[in-house]
Design goal:
Number of helices: 8
Number of domains: 1
Shape: globular
Structural class: mainly alpha
Oligomer: single chain
CATH superfamily: Globins
Length: 159
């Protein structure tokens, strides 16, 4: 029987230190990747931490990204004009999942299913928004995505 206290995905992966380490490692690899490097070659040094904050919020953690950086509309606007290709999108998702394995994020099917679902959804949204012109206005009423377990009741946690 599942435990009545179901953790968020953020809690399940053990919080901000894990996300910061994951995203830092991911962007180190991005900058070494011939396909992705052009998209990120000019990213500011704080970019990985901001992405970690965004993912933390999406996965049920603190709302620091919205409070400090403007929420989902701000994230959408960062993709305007980037012209992200499908090959780049696929590589981005694949590389992040490789880093999740390397960093020993939880590999249970329920967590990975939810993580992959968000990465697929979010990366496809990024491609769509990347075709908007720089300076376009993101709809500030669009709520921050809130991702959760992809199965009823969350993970199976033995008593």
């Amino acid at each position: 029987m599942p435990n009545k206290s179901v953790p968020t995905l953020y809690e399940w992966l053990k919080g901000m230190p894990v996300l910061d380490a994951l995203i830092k490692r991911f962007y180190e690899r991005v900058l070494q990747d011939d396909l992705l490097h052009p998209l990120f070659s000019e990213m500011p040094p704080e970019h990985p931490h901001h992405v970690a904050q965004f993912l933390a919020e999406v996965l049920g953690g603190p709302k620091q990204y919205s409070e400090q950086h403007g929420g989902h509309a701000n994230m959408l606007s960062h993709h305007f004009g980037k012209k992200i290709t499908e090959a780049q999108r696929q590589r981005w998702v694949g590389l992040l999942l490789e880093c999740a394995d390397e960093m020993k994020l939880p590999d249970d099917p329920e967590f990975r299913s939810a993580l992959v679902a968000y990465l697929e959804w979010g990366s496809r949204l990024a491609v769509i928004n990347s075709n908007l012109e720089p300076g376009a206005k993101a709809d500030s009423s669009v709520p921050m995505p809130a991702w959760n377990w992809g199965v009823p009741g969350g993970p199976y946690i033995p008593d």
